[in-house]
Write a structure and sequence with these properties.
The complex is a heterodimer.
Chain A (H helix, E strand, L loop, with lengths): L3 E2 L4 E5 L4 E7 L6 E7 L6 E7 L4 E4 L2 E6 L4 E6 L8 E8 L7 E2 L3 E6 L1
Parallel strand pairs in A: 2-11
Antiparallel strand pairs in A: 1-3, 3-8, 4-5, 4-9, 6-7, 7-8, 9-10, 9-11
Chain B lengths: L3 E4 L2 E4 L5 E7 L6 E7 L5 E8 L5 E2 L8 E7 L2 E6 L8 E8 L10 E2 L3 E5 L1
Parallel strand pairs in B: 2-11
Antiparallel strand pairs in B: 1-3, 3-8, 4-5, 4-9, 5-6, 7-8, 9-10, 9-11
Chain lengths: 112, 118
Amino acid sequence: SQKIEQNSEALNIQEGKTATLTCNYTNYSPAYLQWYRQDPGRGPVFLLLIRENEKEKRKERLKVTFDTTLKQSLFHITASQPADSATYLCARAGAGSYQLTFGKGTKLSVIP
Amino acid sequence: GAVVSQHPSRVICKSGTSVKIECRSLDFQATTMFWYRQFPKKSLMLMATSNEGSKATYEQGVEKDKFLINHASLTLSTLTVTSAHPEDSSFYICSALHAGVYSNQPQHFGDGTRLSIL
């Protein structure tokens, strides 16, 4: 089966630093990976999508990379703020598929 | 844009009750909606894919007679948990895709329904 793993359950960083979250996948590369933010008691909110043939994607303070050799995606938040504290979910889909498989998420806490 | 409303946000009811959860796309049409279940510190588990005008497709291990899904219009899908028991207590979340869109697009999520069965 195609798995998606976010091995760090929690990550604490100091305000102003860059947060880096890791997402690993098994077997064949997904056509694309998506990153979502989820706040407690709320539904996920879409942040970024990166395709298999893209190395890097940016949006304001967010950056996502896709390394098919390492079977890994990294999610970076630069100049982190306490408001960035949330759980971040990585999700994969296969080619031509709109169904997503989600990782367990990494809970990020940005300490003032 | 792309707002999904889920109602109710919280339900507490007695064992044996049937509970209906609504998922509405407010500013777009959605031919496909998804229903997920989430346990604390666990990932979202896809329960079923709901397609407008046709029967839902259930994931392995999900009882279709227990979790009834109806997608009668392009903006509304409902999930009914029939004869709910304490083990059905969970956080249920829906998401929707824009009509005519297939892969490579984000899903738009509702804010979830916290179901507690006493």
